[in-house]
Amino acid sequence: MSRDKTIFSKRRLGYNEVMRKERRQEKLKKSVGGSFKWLSRKGWIFVLVLLVLGGALWQGRYYLKDLNPKEWRSLKTIQINGNRMLTWEELILASRIEVGMPMSEVHVDSIKKHLLTLPLVHSAVVTTSFPSTLEIVLEEATPLMISFDKNNWKVFSERAKVLPTAISSAYQLPVVDLMDEEEMKQIGTFLSAMKAKDEFLYRKVSQIGVNKEEYAIEVFFKDVEFKTLFPLRNWEEKQFDQYKQLIQGFSSDLKTASIVDMRFNGFAYIKPYEKRYSDG
């Protein structure tokens, strides 16, 4: 018994719809048959390529995991800005870098650390840019204070590093008592902040040091007879303004002062000279 092609899912089909259905079935048969014929003749090449590529990826999976694109690039350009006393060659030698080295070996933190070992370097910003450029922006150290050590005067920077500066050009700098490195750095930071805030006030500093008993920075200014105490730690720049206001507003009260204590934020304690009385 032959199947009635005009009935589909209990629904009677028209002649045109039956013909379209047969053409679609015939086209599908030809497409599937053509695919099998292509696979039987040339498709094995495609399958073989896929197998080889998959095997290569599997074998090289560890290599691909450790692949670093930076190793394909080398350092071609080094830009240095801000250097006045230090030469390009000195900075390159200190940085331990050279043109042509792989970018994977250019570590900005390490370069900055090497640069800061130079006494003439106050700060350094090191950056890299794609594809092969290194930029160094320097702020060179400046003479900030002098100290007497082993029958010689030495000039120190903001970072308490000895500078190769002629003492004849540094006699106007504040004199600091030679102390350990940490205390010298504290004084350097204090003077550097004062100079940045008010250079005129900084130039009035005659002598400075650390008073361990009072836990203070002890400052002698050139234009007054008393000594001034600032906090050894946690001092604020506004205390420099407070000191100037005190000098201008209470000049008569300061004529008999031996110590002006600025360690207490917001006010100053004035200690007068001790008066001595004689008999009769």
Mean pLDDT: 82
Helix content: 25-40%
Beta-strand percentage range = 15-25%
Using the alpha-carbon principal axes, give the shape: elongated
Distance linking N and C termini: 155 Å
Rounded radius of gyration (Å) = 41 Å
Uncertain ranges: 276-280
Structural class assignment: alpha+beta
Strand arrangement across the biggest beta sheet: 9-10-11-12-13-14
Number of strands: 14
Question: How would a textbook summarize the main sheet?
Answer: 6 strands, mixed
User: What string, H for helix and E for strand, traces the elements in order?
Assistant: EEHHEHHEEEEEEHHEEEHEE
Specify the number of helices: 7
Condensed summary:
This protein is of the alpha+beta class and 280 residues long. It has seven helices and 14 strands.
What's the topology here?
Elements: E1 7-8, E2 11-12, H1 15-59, H2 61-65, E3 77-81, H3 88-95, H4 108-115, E4 121-129, E5 133-140, E6 145-149, E7 152-156, E8 162-163, E9 175-176, H5 181-197, H6 199-202, E10 205-211, E11 216-221, E12 227-231, H7 238-249, E13 257-261, E14 269-272
Parallel strand pairs: 3-5, 9-10, 12-13
Antiparallel strand pairs: 1-2, 4-5, 6-7, 7-8, 10-11, 11-12, 13-14
Could you describe the 3D structure shown?
With about 280 residues, this protein is α+β, with helices and mostly antiparallel strands. About 35% of the residues lie in helices and about 25% in strands. It has seven helices and 14 strands. The chain has helices spanning about 15-60, 60-65, 90-95, 110-115, 180-195, 200, 240-250, and strands at about 5-10, 10, 75-80, 120-130, 135-140, 145-150, 150-155, 160-165, 175, 205-210, 215-220, 225-230, 255-260, 270. Strands 9-10-11-12-13-14 form a six-stranded mixed β-sheet, with helices on one face. It is elongated and about 125 Å long. The termini are far apart. The relative contact order is 0.06. Mean pLDDT is about 80; it is low at about 275-280.
